[in-house]
């Protein structure tokens, strides 16, 4: 069974182009040929051979193989034990990055994942998604992300360390947490707990990498956001203060002046004056 899908106009980051499940006959083959999108096959039972760039890979149950766009590939089911597999075709601006996080590239196109029932279940849900026509595209995209999450969780833990140090990863996690939660009453302890590191160790690592403490980074992020809101909106100082995590507008104004060199009101007036000068 195979189903082809139209190109998504709302999920451009990652979208399905096709999916299916098939019990292949002996010697069933495809190629040599190229595809215009990514295609990931996952073998439930049986075995076969996958060939790319002149290299042959023997593929069995619990393994998958990746076909990249515009690359010549060939695959064939075993004569004695032909494979039964499922597949997803996909593309999007995030596709390559997500594949790398899952441990799959053109150079390393084979994936190992032992929980066959989970992959099979998600493919079955994709097939059943036609029962929800109004939200089918979003449902299918969500299931595609779920399959990626399984493969990413199963990827070798050393994979990301090949391109980034642990320090860089933790610093990025701190920044991401602050960006998503700066409007809340968060503490450094909250951030350390979320990341799963000792507070003192995380603080030391962050300061060494960025030359700022986590608390200073949080304050500066809040003040930079407030600066933008002062220029781009007509919200009151009190509303802006609460929007960046300060219940007390006076405390917010005090910290803002310390960081920016002038009060929020003065900053707004100066920005408006500068804008008028440019217009004139």
Automatic annotation (TrEMBL):
Gene3D superfamilies referenced in this protein's UniProt entry, alphabetically: Homeodomain-like, Regulatory protein AraC
Keywords annotated in UniProt: DNA-binding, Transcription, Transcription regulation
SMART domains, A to Z: HTH_ARAC (SM00342)
SUPFAM superfamilies linked to this entry: Homeodomain-like, Regulatory protein AraC
InterPro entries noted in UniProt: AraC-bd, Homeodomain-like_sf, HTH-like, HTH_AraC, HTH_AraC-typ_CS, Tscrpt_reg_AraC-type_HTH
Keyword hit for Transcription: yes
This protein's record includes keyword Cytoplasm: no
GO-annotated molecular function: DNA-binding transcription factor activity; sequence-specific DNA binding
Sequence ranges assigned to domain HTH araC/xylS-type in this UniProt record: 172-270
The name this protein goes by in its record: Msm operon regulatory protein
Organism of this sequence: Paenibacillus nuruki
